[in-house]
Design brief:
The structure holds two protein chains of two kinds. By secondary structure, chain A is α+β, with helices and mostly antiparallel strands. Chain A contains seven helices and 20 strands. In chain A, the strands form five sheets. In chain A, strands 11, 14, 15, 16, 17, 18, 19 and 20 form an eight-stranded mixed beta sheet that branches. In chain A, strand 19 and strand 20 form a beta hairpin. In chain A, helix 5 crosses helix 6 and helix 5 crosses helix 7. The longest helix of chain A has 18 residues. The radius of gyration of chain A is 26 Å and the shape is globular. Helix content of chain B is 37%, strand content 20%. Chain B has two domains: 181 residues, Thiamin diphosphate (ThDP)-binding fold, Pyr/PP domains (Rossmann fold, 3-Layer(aba) Sandwich), CATH 3.40.50; 130 residues, Rossmann fold, CATH 3.40.50.920. Chain B starts with a strand and ends with a helix. The chains are: A alpha+beta, B alpha/beta.
Amino acid sequence: MPQLGESVTEGTILKWMKEPGEAVRLDDPLCEIETEKVTAELPSPFEGTMGKILVPQGETVDVGTPLCEVVEAAVAPGHPASGSGEGKWLGGPMAIPPDEPPAADPAPAPVAVRASRAVSPAPSRTRPDERERFFSPAVMRLAREHSVDLSQVTGSGIGGRVTRRDVERHIATGPAPMPAGAAGPGVAPTAPGAPYETVVLSPTRRTIAEHLVRSNVEAPQAWTMVECDVTRLVALREQDKERFREQEGVDLTLLPYFTAAVCEALRAFPMMNARWEGEELRRYRAANVAIAVATEHGLVTPVVHDAGDLSVAGLAKRIADLVQRAHARKLRLEDIQGGTFTVNNTGSFGSVASKPIVNTPQVAIVTMERVVKRPVVVEGDAIAVRSMVNVCLSFDHRALDGYEAGGFLADLKRRLEAIG
Amino acid sequence: MASMTVIEAVRSTLDEALGRDDRVFILGEDVEAGGVFRATEGLAAKHTGRVIDSPLAESSIIGISIGAAHYGMRPVAEIQFADFIHAGFDQLCSEASRWCYRTRGDAYLPMVVRTPWGGGVHGGQHHSQSIEAYYAHMPGIKVVAPAFPADYRSLLRAAIEDPNPVLFLEHKRTYRLIRQEVEGAPAETVIGRARVTRNGPDLTIIAYGLMLHESLAAAETLSSEGIESTVVDLLTLNPIDRETILESARATGKVLIVHEDTLTGGLGGEIAAMIAEHAFEYLDAPIRRVAGPDIPPMPFHHAMEDFFMPNREKIAAAARELAAY
């Protein structure tokens, strides 16, 4: 079971794509795997014939568990059974010699597919091309300078080696925020006549549960709410939406306006745009806004990276793309990593007030509630019908106080009311 | 603008030097008749008495040049094939190299030794060797090995004007193979500077002479596969341009050094050591060398010569491994 994403410890076989006895080419998909974070196909690291399936469909196993056997294509006698695929590492001056002497028996032996990134058990280097724990000087230096935990970096180099570019990419996108993925409901068989059904928790459901418990236990969370008069914003959106749809190809909702206003407010109150990294609280320069998306597979929070650099139109398109891919379960790892602040559009359920849980290690989350028309007292003590929306904020009281949080919310309110 | 081969670049620069400075003269085997590669063709007739045939004795060619330089002349010696230069090794390394040092800077030896080097021309055991590492090891001798005609012009001029001994290496395979548009007078240049001839983030290829051209061809192939390499033309082998090498090594973190000289004790080892010493923390892969195998001479047989010579395919193959590392 490969490690598909940081902090993932187990995965479920959704579907086997090769039958025992079937020919397997290098990088052919062997099976589809679901983890807390992503669903992915497992490409075959070997060329040969599919052997025994060790983990049946639907079963969940720990990272590092052998999934199946592949009988490698015949290798010339006297050569170690390794690296036979095209474009694969064949040794040469840069090869690290195998720890084990080459097998004397040239008969093809089944090789257990073990694409793990070896997290818990110490890696035993049994093949010359397993280099996931070999770090070059450049990688070590970068990791030290940027406090990167190298076990959290996925290697793209030969034998899974973490390259300098992998670390640079990791530094650029940051570690994963709240995990997301598939939470497909399932029911375990219960005794006939039992007055209940047992819900089988999917990896995603369990991760969401663990994450939220951790967040609630770790972070003392305070809550506050403001009400905003968005009559003008609603009118502006009404006026723009037809043309926007024609020009940009996506629907214009209030969410991109809201997100843009959030980014501006974050710039004014940078303490809100922060993450805990261990004991350290880091204020981020870029606003990487995570958008909570409720899907039938579970809650996902894809990230709009550098949201502060985008226009309303740019945000609309980016959010539409992320939401669409979240529903289709096509999010990539980088789509869900590195969030610095979360926006939750609870209004889409009709809610007018909600208490979100902070998406730790971030320090704050806002909701945009439903826009409702209400009689409001306006200037001159008159009563008018206005489009009102509540904006709720939960924040980690360890990181900041009401001074910043209140200031941020007031600023956000001012900006929302000024649009249009 | 004129299109010029390497040999034309050498000849025109010699001609200009003879015309510009009365102290310059050429000494070598068969140079009056133009030399075996025709580098001095027509120069004896044009500059009477200053293109001088020597006996077949390399130690005397270099020894006479040292003596003439002592007396204020600016000799440009030609050694017919670099393979023959070792007869003058003692003259170069024990005398010429240390004259400035020995006189505590009071005296200089402004002399140039030009010689065709390298293989790929089916020259066999006595007409194909790479000799640069012996001489680049010697402090006090500058060693220059350009790749492009314009650099031949500017560096040969700089060598002739240099107050100290310069070994000027001309890759014989490139003499009529490499052509370049060359403008007017040679550009002002300094011995000791390398040049980045191609830029790419994935790896650095360091080469000189014919191998620079092979490296550029390899880089072109690699580019079509999505691997973008930086190619550094060393130009001067002693003193080596440490700054340019280190800067590029730090930028890409992956370095491939190419020379047709045999691997062991070749310049690649020195460059690799320099990078390991000064850019260790930037390295993302082992430093690779593509070099001639440790076989005494370049073989004559065509297939064996091909086996011996590094080429664009071998360079590209090593670069691919390095990029994927």
